[in-house]
Structure formats: structure tokens, C-alpha cells
Queue: 2 jobs
Job 1
Amino acid sequence: MSLFLFSFIVIYGGLHAYGLWKLQSAFSLGARVMVPLLVAAVFLVLTPLLTRVTERAGHEGAALVLAHIGYPWMGFLFLFFVFSLLLDLGRLPVRLFRASGETGMGLFLEGSTPFFLAFGAALLVSLYGVLEARNIRVERLSVETDKLPPGTASLRIVQISDVHLGLMVGKSHLERIARIVRDLEPDLLVSTGDLVDGTLCRLPGLAETLRRLPSPLGKFAVTGNHESYAGLPAALRFTKQAGFRILRGETVRLPGLLSITGVDDPAVGRFGSVTKGEEDTLLPEDDLFTLLLKHRPLIDPASKWRSDLQLSGHTHRGQIFPFTLLTAVAYPYQSGTYSLAGGGLLHVSRGTGTWGPPLRVLSPPEITLIDLRKQTAAGGT
């Protein structure tokens, strides 16, 4: 954790240093202005950490204020850095032409203009990102299988993932989720981790919203990495209060319909909790359709041929482009549906909420609707 904190301060502090440098370059500000700005920058670098400290200490009001200052600023600063860097790269050819004696080119990129362009673009995209984060899309996946029992023509599964209920994602967003889930009329509702984020002082009233969602065959969930950060016992308690059965290294059979296997996120083990079993030993070898719930979109070579459908999340598809490009390196299965060796499928959700900055750019939140349909004689998977 200390390495993470050090890395965070270095990277986030570097972004603030870059922003101050661009500000000074654009306006040639004196020490009387720069010193207060430097103090403000130090405060903003520490705001995410102060948010967690005050939240854990039970000072919910202070934590809410800090979160609503620090996290939107984090998203804006990242976008400002991206646009400013792009403008800097665009100015290189201009400088080369001017060095070779050409004049009159790129004057609009001189002085304070690049700063205003980057600032304006970051502000507009941030505002768009807030709207996109509220626009939950339904992604539909139809799977034909010969493993549904006689008399069952179809089975409807709805997946939510990475909701991150906490300081930044609360009642209004959860009610949007609930309305969509009710309209989809699932037979089975699953949550593939990170249902909660941070301490849970704001969440008890939200559990009932999830509990009331109709799901005739039940609700099932697995842990994500943020359940550990929130405090695992409290996170598990909330998830159970919300009506979910938590699968922590176990398999449940819905008689005559399908098998559901769920595994803990690796972060749970790092925080000292012991799970019941490993994925490759848990997946059943029978004629039932096998559903694997796993927070991170990683494929276990020992078991990749034994699940018919793996549902995962975690990546958020980067949440804010172009961060998407970095998460694609870490997780090649970043979002969408992938065919696996042996005929199984993997679907990776972009997530239903947000983490950190309350915005999404080119990565809208999703609720996934999976329709299992009985394979016809002429059909295929």
C-alpha cells in the first residue's frame, strides 16, 4: 500500500506541476500569485487521501465535501493534461517551420491561447463526461445453448458490475439502475464485484432498493477489489442485506437449469481473507449450463474450457478516454464479448457506476442483459 501511495503522489503531483508550469508559461505570474496556487495544488493532490481518512474516521460530511471537490478536479486535470500535451505536440511542426524561416504559421498557438484551448476543451469534455456517466446503456447478449432443460426455451440473466456505491455514487444513480433492471425482468440477477466503495456509512438505506428488485431465480454476487478496501466484513454484510448470495469460491446448482460458480477477487486474499476453493476445482463437469462470476477478466488456463459463460468487470474500459489505452495493455479482454477456446464466452462489463471522477468519456456505463436460448436443430452457439 505504501508503494501505491508513493506512486499516486508522484504521478498526481506531477500532473499538478505540469498544470502550474503551463499556467506560468501562459501568463508569467509572479510569486504573489504562484505561491497560493502552489498551496492549492498541494491540497488538491492530497484531497483523495484526505477524503479516505475523514471517511474512515466517520466524518461523512467532511468526506462528502472533499470528494466532490477532489474527484471532479481529478478528471478535469487529466483531460487538461491530455489536451495540453496534444497541443504541445501540434506546435512542434510549427516551430520547425519557423526555425527554417517560414513565418505567419501557428500564431494562434502562441502566448496564452494554447492554455485557453486546453482548458476549454477539458471543461467541455468533463461536462459531457458527467452526462455520459448518468446515461446507462443496456448491452444485449444472446447465447444459444443445447444445455437448457426440456420445457425451458430461454433464461434471462442481468449483470451489474462496478457500481461503487459510496461517496460519489448514491441513491439517484442506484434508482436509475433499479428502474432499468426492473424493466428488463430478469430471471437471475448477478453482481460481478465492486458493488461498494469506501466505508458504508451512507449505504444502509440503499440495500433495500436492491433487495426489492425482482429476480425469481435469485441474486448472486462475487467480491471485487473494492470490497476489501471498503472493509470486507461490512461490504459482505451490505451485499447480503441487498439480497445477494455471495459466492466465495463455491458453486451453486439451480436444479435442472444451470450451475453458477463464483470466485473471490485476488485482493481479498491479500487482505487476509481465506476463500473456499480455486476456480479450476470448482467448475462442475456436468450437462448443465455453467456460469462463472469473476471480477477481473482473466482466464484461468486450467479451467477455460469448462465454463460456458464467464461474466467479469473491473476494467471500466478505462472510464475516461484515452486512459482506455492503458487499461487495454493490462487487460487484453477489456470490454465486450469474447469467444474462448473450447466454445465458451467471456463478457466484460464496462461497469455500471464510476470510480473516482464522476465522469465517463467514450466508455458509458452498462447493464448487461444475457438471454440464454435453447439451441434449435439448425442453430449454433
Job 2
Amino acid sequence: MAVISYLTKIQFDFGAIKLLADEMKALGIKRPLIVTDKGLVKTGILDTIRANIPNEFDVSVFDGTPENPTEAATWEALKIYKENGCDGIIAVGGGSSMDLAKGVRLLATHEGPLAQYAMVEGGVARIRPDVSKLIAVATTSGTGSEVGRGAVIVLEDGRKLALVSPYLIPNVAINDPELTLGLPPVLTAGTGMDAITHCIETFLSLAVNPPADGISLEGLRLASRSIETAVKDGSNRQARWDMMMGSMMGAMSFQKGLGAVHALSHPLGAVKGLRLHHGTLNAVFLPAVLRFNKSVVGDKYPRVAQAMGLPENTDIADAISKLNAKLGIPASLREMGVTDDLLDGIALAATKDHAHPTNPRTPSVAEYRKLLDEAMAGN
């Protein structure tokens, strides 16, 4: 029997940010902590957010979210939350800020450390419903963390693990494509390929969830038709709408499960010093994993091709490689600065990642190492 649920409120459209204060009042939030990053502050988006919060609210800000959210940064944000008597959180940004905010909402009512709540450590059952209130405001179109039940955080021991619980899903998601109009091409490409990877991996996942399959294919259709336009012309409103909706749908559907792409990108993304963008990593890994899975997915690849607006007999792995090239995505891991000495450790770590069990074909450590070699060489 399959248990299926989609459990969050989403305000979606141009101008949706104007509803922020109403949603805060509905949740009873009077002293919010805004969790964001310094890069986003420089863009002026935080000023836009604050302009939509009346003076009656006592607002605190944590803008120290790193590119890959860490447990250390989570504790720093929690300190501000407690010192200012905050009663709710507003996550503003992409997946990093949202995942860190989920860590803060958890630690606001649960004892640390975070490792005990990781999915692979049996932590799902340890997360209670009494978490802090959270509103997620998306400013990118990629992770879809604003509707997701997971938070992927680099723990104190260096592992990049997922905290997963329906209680971590934000109380409200605000998806305003207007906030993405100024997103630069390189981030539009990387986050957009993250969304496309979510849709494809979800559809191919072993888990049984037909509603998720339908949502993922529609999300793939929207993102595929508009990603090139969004990268070339960031002011195109229809393309930005499509990308944000496709991203959100990918995340709604990946409650079903992901696969080997994410099993590889999670541990590699945790390597200190490399500062690897998660969505870009996914894009580079995706062609090799698609080739690896081809023998076991039945008629699913023609359906993926159809959703992407391609002939049903299209080589999907080759199509993704060509799309990556058009978007300016690096052709290989080596081009991103990854070195051979890291590969054995990443291959082993991939077998322990929470996304590993739902890949349609279960890779061994040796097979993960081969996938890494392919991604190092370029697809």
C-alpha cells in the first residue's frame, strides 16, 4: 500500500510577496527571524521582503547562511532566534537558506545535535510536531525546498545528511516569480537543472506514487520548455513563472524519492573547500546516471522525452548533455575542480545516502565509482 500526502499552503503568482504579512498574522508570528544569505542581501531582495512586513512586527535577521548549510551556522542562527525571543522564522532564498531555517525550527524545540535527526540515523521518528512556525519565500527556482519535508545539512562530523519529516514542511510557501527576475544566468542554469533533475529522478524512482509521477512530468514539461529562455532572458516573465512552478512541482513530487544523482551530489557537495553548487553537480551527474538506469526503466524514457518536447526515441542522456552545454553547465567534474583522490570516498558515501535506495537500479560502490569516472571525463 502506498501512503501519499501533499501538505502545505502555497501562495503562487507575481506579487505573492504582498501576502507575507497576512500569512504571518494567520500563524501568529509577531517576532520573526529572517534566515537568508549575504549574497541575497546585496541584491536588495531582503529590502523588498522587509518592505512587505509592517512595523508592528519585531524582525531579526540572520544572513550567514553558507552555500551548503552547516550545523554550525544553524546554531548561530538559533542563538539570534533565542536572544530576540523570536516566535517564528521566515526563510528567504534558495534551498540553502530554507534548509538551514528548517534546522533552526527543529532545534528551537528539540535538543541537539542534528545528527540524531538524520534520516539514515533513524531520526524521522525523533522529530516531533512541536517545531517553530516557518514561512518559506523562494527566490530561486531549483530546490523547491519551500514545499519539501527535508533539509540537507552538513553536520559537525562533515557528513551531508537529510533531516526528513512532514513536520519540517514549511507552514506556508510564498512563490513569487517576480523575486527571480534578477537571478543571474549561471544561477538560473544551475538551479533550473536541479529542478529538472528532481522531476526526472522522481519519475524514475522505485517507489509507487502515481500522483507524484504525474506532477513530476508536468514540472519537467514546464521547466524544459523555459529553461533556455530564462537563462538567456531573465526578464521573461512567462519563463520565470514556468521555472518556479516546475521547481515547486519537482519538490512536491520528490517526496516519492530520488536516486543515484543525489546520492552522489550530496557527499561531493559536502567536501570542504570546493564550494560546489548542488544543482550544477546534479546536471553533470545526470547523463551518466541516465545511461546506468536505462536497462531497468521500461517505457519511462519515452515519457520523459515526451514531457521535454522531444521525439519518444530520443537518447535522454545525450539530450541532457546537449542541454547542459547550451546552458553553460561545466562538461565534467574535473572542470569544476574535483580531483581523483576524492572519488573512492564519495562512491562509498553514496551507498549510505538516503537517495540511494530508491534509484531504479541499485549501484554498488564499484558502480558508483564508475559513474564518478564518467562524470570526471565529461558526458
